[in-house]
Amino acid sequence: MHQNWRVNTNLPTLSQMNDLVIKMERYLSGFPGIRQFQTSIPNARRASINVFFRKEAEQSGFPYQLKSNVISKALELGGGSWGVYGLQDQGFSNDVRDMAGQYRVKLYGYNYDELSAWTDSLKQRLLTYRRIREVIVNSSFSWYKDDYQEFSFDLKKEQLAARGILPGKLFNSLQPVFARNMWAGSVVMDGESENIVLSGRQAKEYDIWALQHLGRYVDGRFYKLDEMANIAKGQAPQEVAKENQQYRLVLQYDYIGSNTQGQKILEREIEEFNKRLPMGYTAQKEDSYGGWNRKDNKQYWLIGLLIVIIFFTTSILFNSLKQPLVIIFIIPVSFIGIFLTFYLFKLNFDQGGFASFILLSGITINAAIYIVDEYNRMRKQRPGLSSLKTYLKAWNAKIIPIFLTIISTILGFTPFLVGTQKEGFWFPLAAGTIGGLIMSFIGIFIFLPLLMVKKERNRIETES
Asked: What is the pLDDT of residue 88?
C-alpha cells in the first residue's frame, strides 16, 4: 500500500522546488510506520513523493491518519499547489492556478531582442481593448498561468547619450556589485570537474532601491541608475525557444465576451500587425486546442502520401499486394508509442513531434522489409518447409541487425533528452522517435508473425 503526493508550484528554480520537497521529506521521516518514500522532481514546476508503508502499519489506521497529517503540513508549507492521493478514497487538492488563456498568437523572428520588442508592441495593442485584462508572454503555450516575473531595465537613451555612457559600460559598472553566480571557469577536484562561480559581496545586501539610488562611476563620470534607466517588474518568458531556426515567442490571453467577436478582433489585429512587421518576422494565430489545427491538415496528407509510396514500392519489391499491407500495418502500431510518450510525459507536440512520425515510418518498415524479404527468399529455396518454420528462420537471421538498428537509433537521440535545456524541435523529435521505436519492436515481435504466418497458412490450405 502506498500514497502519492504531487506538488505543482510557480517557483522559478529547481533548487527552490527541491527545498520545498525536502521540508516535506523531513516531516515524513519522523513516522516509523513508513517503510520508505521515493521523491521525483522532473522540473521546477512539478514534483511527487510516493510513500510506502510497513506491513504492520498497512492493517492499522496509520495510513489514513498520515494522510490527514500530510494535508495539514501541506497547507502549512504552502509554496505551491499540493495534491494528496491514495487509499482508494477521495483525494485532496488545493490547486487554484488560473488558466493562461484560450486566445493564442505565435511570433517568429531572427533577432530575439527585436522580436521581444515587437511582441511587447502587440501586447500593448491588445490591452487597449477593455475586454482583455491580461496578456501573457512566454516561449511556449501553457494551459496554466505562469507567475514567473523578472526585473527589466528601460534605458533612458536621451540621458545616456547626453552623458556619453554606452549601455554596455553601464551594465559593466553594475556587474561587480550586484552580479551573482557568474561562471569564472572550472577546476578538477577528486577527479571531477567543478564550476567556479563569483558573486558580489554586496549582492545579497543591496535591494532595488539601493540599485537605483546609490552612486556609481563610469569612465570617471558619476551617475545614479534612476537617472539612466527605469526598473520594472513584470511577467517574462523563462527560456529562449527556437522553431525552424527562428526565435519564437507566444502570447496568450482571455477575451471576456463572445468567442466569435474575440476571434474577429484577433484576426484583425494580426493582419494589421503583420503589415508593420519587417522582413523575417511573422505573427500567426494558433488553435487553442493545440496539436494539428485546421491550417495544418496538409500534414495528414503527407503521412498518407508516404504510406502510398511505401505500398507501391514494397508491392514491386515483393511482387505482391498482400505483404505490403502487412508491413504498413506495423506503422500505426509504432505511432501508438508516439502518442503514449507525449501523453504520459505531458510533452508539447510541435514540428519535432510530426517529424518523428515521418522518421519512424521509414525505420519501422525497414525492419519489417528485412524479415519479409528473407522470408520470401527462404520460401523459394525451401518450398517444402512449413510457413511457421520458414518465418522463424527468417526472424533468427534478421532480428540481430534489426535490434541493433533500433538500439543505436535510440542511443543517438538520447543526448537530446539529457539536460535542462529542451530544444523546441529536437526534444519532441527525440522523445517521439524513441517511444515509437520501442512500440515498433513490439509490433514486429508480435503482430508481424501473426499476420504473415496466418496469411501463408490460408494460402496453402486454399491451394491444397
From this structure: 64
No. of helices (H) and no. of strands (E), the chain: 14, 16
**Cα 85-88-91 angle, rounded to 5 deg:** 30
Domains of the chain by residue range: 2-93, 103-178+205-286, 294-463
Alpha-carbon Rg for the chain, nearest whole angstrom, is 30
Q: Which of 403, 405, 409, 399 is nearest to 433 (CA)?
A: 409
pLDDT above 50 (res 278): yes
Q: What is the DSSP string of 251-303?
A: EEE--SS-HHHHHHHHHHHHHHHHHHSPTT-EEEEE-TT-SS-GGGTHHHHHH
Cα 335 to Cα 70: distance, rounded to the nearest angstrom = 41
CA pair distance 112, 235, nearest whole angstrom: 17
Going by C-alpha positions, the residue among 427, 254, 252, 448 that lies closest to residue 347 is: 427
CATH 3.40.50.300 is the classification of domain 294-463: no
Average pLDDT score over residue span 61-85? 83
CA-to-CA separations, 284 to 136, 254, 268, 435, in angstroms, rounded? 16, 17, 11, 31
What are φ and ψ of residue 258, in 5° steps? -65, 135
